[in-house]
Amino acid sequence: MEAHKTYFEVNKATWNKKVEVHAKSAMYDLEAFKQGKSSLMPYELKALGDVAGKTLLHLQCHFGQDTLSWSRAGAKCTGIDLSDEGIKLAKALNAELNLDAHFVCCNVFETSKHVHETFDVVFTSYGVIGWLPDLRPWAQMIFERLKPGGIFYMVEFHPIVWMFDYLEEPPKLKYGYMQDEVIYEEYEGTYADGESKMVSKEYGWNHGLGAVVSALAEAGLHITCLKEHDESPYNVLPDLEKTTSGMYVTKDKLYPLIFEIKATKP
């Protein structure tokens, strides 16, 4: 991954700035979280069920809200993130809430260099794989960190969503469903606070569902579930409409917004 070092450094700097903005945002609602509100969404809660007593590794955990929500649910959690500011806040929240989660700052590709134990569950969610240029070492790391019989679960924005340039009005179909070339975007604000004056500078990659499934399968994982949904729990795309269930949809529902994958290690 040495060839991508500059991209990772730029992304890390952006995410370090995002932490302060997101910690104050209505979307993350940190005060409600501190009072006991879970940050977990229906997809992941239904998929993983009761995690009490299980060990759980959370990849790309931002500032740890979901990690700590799983910890509140009884899991023994470790969270990984590229942003040292994110991990700093996660550790502070863990101490303030008197929880027992463990947090490590590292590139997700280097998780196995920093975390040596294996886990019952490896979890990752919402806006994660687009930061990774190659899913094969990511999938291999997941295999390494799972116990035999362990579960990998991810819920992620659908690759069709990332084909659009949302800096255009209306959004323009611009990027490939499968695109090896890096995508660079620079804009003011973040998905959690469009009014923020911070400048986000981001390098990302598009991965089709075939690439995701193949990387996991080739690493040795057994895919047990692949689902696509036209509803998102987050209102992070232009002109979404809220449903009676509290989810968000496009007006025409022509394509999925979210996918889920569950896999097991034999």
Automatic annotation (TrEMBL):
Domain called Methyltransferase type: residue spans: 58-153
GO biological process: methylation
Keyword match Chloroplast: no
Record's keyword annotation contains Aminoacyl-tRNA synthetase: no
Keywords, ordered alphabetically: Methyltransferase, Transferase
GO MF terms held by the record: S-adenosylmethionine-dependent methyltransferase activity
Protein name, as recorded: Methyltransferase type 12
